[in-house]
Amino acid sequence: MHLGNLVRLQPFQVSGLPAHPALEGVNDHAGEPASNGHPDVLEFAGEVLKQADGFMQGLYIAAASQDHPVADDGENNKPAEDPRAYDWIRKSYKTEAHTRINLFQRDINSADLHQAVSVKGPIPRRFSEADESFLKGEKWFARISTHEDAPKEGTASFDEMIAGLKRDHALHEQECTPTLYDTNKVLEWTIPPEAKVDRYYEIEMSIHEMCHRMPSPLQDRVFPVLIISAMSSPDSFIDVQLCLGGLEQVPGARNVLRKDVVVGAYTSVEAGRRSDGRTTWSMAVASDAKGILPSWLQAPAIPSAIAKDVGFFMEWAKNRRAKA
User: DSSP characters for 87-114?
Assistant: First the structure.
């Protein structure tokens, strides 16, 4: 099992991001200017996308393996299974937008996390003692659903999914999600649409403050994230939201400075793949809403919440069609 050092719930510090005029003067954990320079924007985006793709590949393998378990040959001899087949465990399913949504869970222990983030790799991480709380373990939840590639009631075409999930992701997520009331764009990197790294192209990269309304008496939450999206082929796209730290130093950030909200953490990966007239839509998330709500109390609500997002998006696509 290989875990990347970047697609983690542990906040990635803004001081380690690619150069941007708004990040000049941003300090690292110790209050010192970033000492190792800034990575190239395409190299950084490519490495994040590659790690996210690899992480999701394990989910696809687990889903296929658990749908069709490897049988023995009658003499108790089983062919070798992919070691990732049971990294993710199918826990249940929900029905949204007339579609079965398979729900999975993956628990990553502290030892594996420490090993993953300690790998130098092309893009190193910067650490502080505060990061240790995120390395006690990660609990990931995921969903997979399959939809007819058609612009009609109860589903969406692959092009509609690209328009709503890959392009301007934060804006469209706000339009889809009832509790999401602000997605303040703090900054955006200008990447030419023809730029390509590895197999990724049409790359978008920006920082947002994702603000969610919470039921009383809980305080609202703001999640600082770096969003990177790209096409990986004419029939596949991927969108990554990385939890960020240190955003309060960046001009344009406003919600992380508010006293009436709690700064939470989440990292997610969302992907779409088209084949034979159908689109497989998958999403995985690890989160910690912080505040007085313990993580063990947060976790049971996440699978239902991410399943409902499918219905929200299909309703968004229907309304968008009606306005066209």
Answer: TSEEEEEEEETTEEEEEEEEEEEHHHHH
Nearest 5°: CA angle at 183, between 108 and 288?
Answer: 25
Q: 256: which 2 tokens?
A: 């992380």
The DSSP annotation for 212-232 comes to E---TTSPEEEEEEEEEEEEE
86's CB contacts (< 8 A; 6+ apart) are: 62, 65, 66
Q: Which two tokens stand for residue 120?
A: 């130098």
Are 23 and 37 in contact by the 8 Å Cβ rule? The answer is no
- Could you tell me which of 92, 153, 157 has the C-alpha nearest to residue 311? 153
Query: Cα–Cα distance between 197 and 189 in angstroms, integer?
Result: 15
Query: Tens of pLDDT along 51-93?
Result: 999 999 999 998 888 775 544 444 554 445 677 777 899 999 9
Phi and psi (nearest 5°) for 82?
Answer: -60, 130
Cβ–Cβ < 8 Å for 131, 113: no
Predicted local confidence at residue 81, as pLDDT:
65
Helix/strand/coil (H/E/C) assignment for every residue in 116-177: HHHCCCCCCCCCCHHHHHHHCEEEEEEEEEEEEECCCCCCECHHHHHHHHHCCHHHHHHHHC
Q: Amino acid letter at 145?
A: S
Residue pLDDT, tens place only, 286-311: 999 898 777 778 888 999 999 999 99
Return d(Cα 48, Cα 3) in angstroms, integer: 12
